[in-house]
Design brief:
Strand content: 25-35%
Order of helices and strands: EEHEEEEHHHEHHEEHHEEEEEE
Mean pLDDT: 89
Oligomer: single chain
Largest sheet: 6 strands, antiparallel
């Protein structure tokens, strides 16, 4: 599917190691040098020929066979290849396809993976540009600016093609955004419990900790990367968070409510719709030193 109102831009302007930059589209142009012997055997991950946002094998083949689409002078040679991938933070969202120049035209395909010697010609970021302002992308940009929220690329791709009066629940949740919350990960909960009860071992402190943890689910600022509250002292949780080097990915999932469900926007479940588990998880240090916390399940 070719997304209307978009154009593609092949850039070579990314500084540093481009593969360290996540959630961007990367292109790699290579020339064929020779074949080699190899004892390596294996299966190659199946390609995705249409990313559903204007980036597709068919669309790019058409452009390559009409003109030079790169920002440098380039004349293709036999068996040159162009590899395009989405370098996803969440490995499950990774996708790619490859094109090869054979018999004077670009087509789908690649040189044999394990026995080909290739040399890189150039690489960079493939940008999807909207000719006119896309309202959903504007909603996403606003959330990034105001709250530090990065909407997963898979959600952008799907919802950018919907009309502004769409009743799609995910589209509406982002369009009419009100709040987000966090789901704690078990390792962070364990650290909270063990740290807290070293200082406050009395049983009654378990209830105080429970109240703090519950309230803080809606008190984390992505922009400032810490818990913030005008009414509740959250300094203890921020100290625990600092013990994890302020790494969100190790401590919790960030979620946007969608009616009775949630859109996870980070970590291994990024872009997935989940629902809150009926039963809370519990972590016991002992019978008096314990903590329960919300969990979620995939649809």
């Amino acid at each position: 599917m070719c997304t209307p109102n978009t154009e593609l831009q092949f850039c070579t302007c990314v500084e540093g190691d481009i593969y360290e930059v996540k959630d961007i589209y990367i292109w790699t142009l290579s020339m064929y040098i020779d074949s080699k012997k190899s004892m390596i055997r294996g299966k190659i991950m199946k390609s995705t020929e249409d990313f559903e946002n204007g980036i597709s094998a068919e669309n790019i083949i058409s452009k390559l066979n009409e003109e030079n689409i790169f920002d440098f002078e380039y004349t293709p040679k036999e068996r040159d290849t162009l590899h395009i991938s989405f370098n996803a933070e969440n490995r499950e969202e990774y996708k790619y396809f490859s094109l090869i120049f054979r018999d004077g035209i670009w087509r789908k395909g690649r040189n044999p993976v394990f026995v080909s010697v290739e040399k890189s010609i150039a690489k960079g970021e493939l940008k999807v540009l909207y000719k006119e302002e896309n309202k959903f992308i504007k909603y996403c940009d606003d959330l990034k600016l105001k709250f530090g929220i990065d909407i997963p690329e898979s959600i952008k791709v799907r919802c950018a093609n919907l009309k502004n009066d769409s009743e799609d629940p995910t589209y509406l949740a982002i369009k009419n955004f009100k709040e987000y919350k966090i789901f704690y990960k078990l390792e962070f909960i364990k650290h909270i419990v063990n740290t807290h009860f070293k200082t406050f071992p009395k049983p009654e402190n378990s209830d105080r900790l429970q109240i703090l943890v519950n309230e803080a689910q809606n008190r984390f600022s992505l922009l400032e990367n810490k818990f913030i509250s005008e009414k509740t002292n959250v300094s203890f949780l921020n100290r625990c968070f600092k013990d994890f080097d302020n790494n969100i990915e190790e401590c919790f999932f960030v979620a946007i409510p969608i009616k009775e469900e949630y859109l996870i926007i980070n970590g291994s479940f990024s872009g997935k719709i989940v629902f809150k588990s009926k039963k809370d998880k519990r972590y016991f240090k002992d019978n008096s030193q314990k903590l329960k916390f919300e969990d979620f399940e995939k649809l």
